[in-house]
Amino acid sequence: QMANLSLVSSACDMVSTAYASTKESHPYIRSVCDAAEKGVRSVTEATASCVQPLLTTLEPHVAAGSEYASKGLDKLGEKLPLLQKSVEQVISDTKEQISARVADAKDVVSS
User: InterPro entries of this UniProt entry (predicted)?
Assistant: First the structure.
């Protein structure tokens, strides 16, 4: 549910695009990133097989925690409408607000 928030989703997209672009542009960084990705995949696979029995046992508790977290995210989304905007919209809105404040300050100084 958190990944579906516009702000989070667009931020992840931006980071992913920057990561892919950096890997593509710099061969040395690409080899380091490829090795790191391979290591993360190996650790994830090994951990998943070891943790699976524990997850099965804890499944009802995880489901309850997930439901509680979901309700919390819903309330957070209501109180912070900013989370429903993309990063680009947040930046644009911020620029507009700053421009308006600077214009107001110029008017005050001029008068």
Answer: Perilipin (IPR004279)
Q: How far is CA 60 from CA 35, 50, 54, 73, in A?
A: 36, 19, 12, 20
Ordered DSSP codes for 24-44:
HH-HHHHHHHHHHHHHHHHHH
Query: Each residue of 18-44: pLDDT tens digit?
Result: 999 999 999 899 999 999 999 999 998
Domain range annotation of the chain: 1-110
pTM: 0.57
SS3 13: helix
